[in-house]
Amino acid sequence: METTEAIAKWRSIRRYKPEPVPEGALRKVLDAGRKAPSWENVQPWHFIAVVDEALKQKLVKLSRGQKFVASAPVVIAVCGDVGAWDKPRNREALLELIEAGAMKATAEVVDNLLLKDPVFCVAEHGPSIILARTMEQLGIAYGFMCVEAVNQGLGCCIVGAFGNEMTGSLRELYDEVRADLALPERVYLLALLTLGVPDEQPPARPRKTFDSVVSKNKYGNPF
Ligand SMILES: Cc1cc2nc3c(=O)[nH]c(=O)nc-3n(C[C@H](O)[C@H](O)[C@H](O)COP(=O)(O)O)c2cc1C
Fold it and tell me: What is the pLDDT of residues 4-43, one digit of tens each?
C-alpha cells in the first residue's frame, strides 16, 4: 500500500474482531515506532504490547470507562522516558549521531555548546518542558505506528484521555497500572494505542479545509 493511500484510509477504529493480531503485523507496527525520528535522536520511548485481560480492564477504568480499550486484542502502552533527556544520555545519543556521520560536530562542541544551550538541550528546562518534549517525540512514534497499522490492514485508536502525568488525575489507579507494567521511576505511561482487526468501516471524520490550515509565506496568504 502506498503511504498516501494509507494516510487517506486512516480512521480511528474503536470496534475490533475478536481474532488476534498476527504476530508479524504487530511486530511491524511496533518497529515503525522504534524507527521514528526524535530530537537529537534521544528516542525517549518504550512500547509495551499489552494482551493481559485484567490489565486491559484496568486501562478501561484508567481511561474513565472507555470500554473499547479492553475490546482491542492488543493495547500498545506508549511510554515516555523522561530520563532520556539527562545530559549523559543526551550526550550519548549525540555522540552516536556524530559517529554515524549524521552530524558534523565534535565531543567538545557537544559538551561546551550543545549540552549547555537552552535551545539545543532539553535538560536545561524544567519538568513541564521536558514532559512536553517527551510527548512531542511520542506523537511522532505513534503517528508512524498508526500509518503502519493501516498498511497492515489493522485498525487502531490513539487514546490520550486517561490518568497519568499529563492529566494529573486518577493517581492511585495510575500508580497501580505503573506497577503492573513494571515501569521504571522516570518512565511514564503517556498514550495508549488500541490495535486489532477492524470490525467497522466508519466514514472519514471531518477535517478543516486545506486552505484554512495552509498558507504560503504569510499566515492567511493562499497556498
Ligand atoms: C493525542 C490523541 C488523543 C486521543 N485520545 C482519544 C481518547 O482518549 N479516546 C478516543 O476515543 N479517541 C481519542 N483520540 C482520537 C480522536 O478523537 C480522533 O483522532 C479524532 O476524532 C479524528 O478522528 P479520526 O482519527 O477517525 O480521523 C485521540 C487522538 C489523539 C491524536
Answer: 999 999 999 999 999 999 999 999 999 999 999 999 999 9
Kindly indicate whether the domain formed by 3-83+126-201 is annotated with CATH number 3.30.1330.60. no
| Backbone dihedral angles phi then psi of residue 83, each to the nearest 5 degrees | -70, -15
Q: In the 3-class helix/strand/coil scheme, how is 145-199 assigned residue by residue?
A: HHHHHHHCCCEEEEECCCCCCCCCCCHHHHHHHHHHCCCCCCEEEEEEEEEECEC
With a Cβ cut-off of 6 Å, ligand 1 is lined by 11-12, 66, 157-161, 205
What predicted TM-score, i.e. pTM, was given to this entire model? 0.97
Q: Tell me how far apart the alpha carbons of residues 148 and 204 are, in angstroms, rounded to a whole number.
A: 18
At 1 the pLDDT is: 81
Place of cell 558534523: 104
For ligand 1, pick from 67, 157, 208 the residue to mutate: most ligand atoms within 8 Å of CB: 157
Distance CA 70, CA 53 (A): 7
Q: Which residues, other chains included, contact 219 with Cβ-Cβ below 8 Å and sequence gap of 6+?
A: none
Distance 109 CA to ligand 1 centre (A): 41
Segment holding 37, helix H or strand E: none
Over residues 162-171, the mean pLDDT reads 97
- Count Cα atoms within 13 angstroms, Cβ side, for 189: 33
Position in ligand 1 atom list of the atom nearest CA 68 = 11
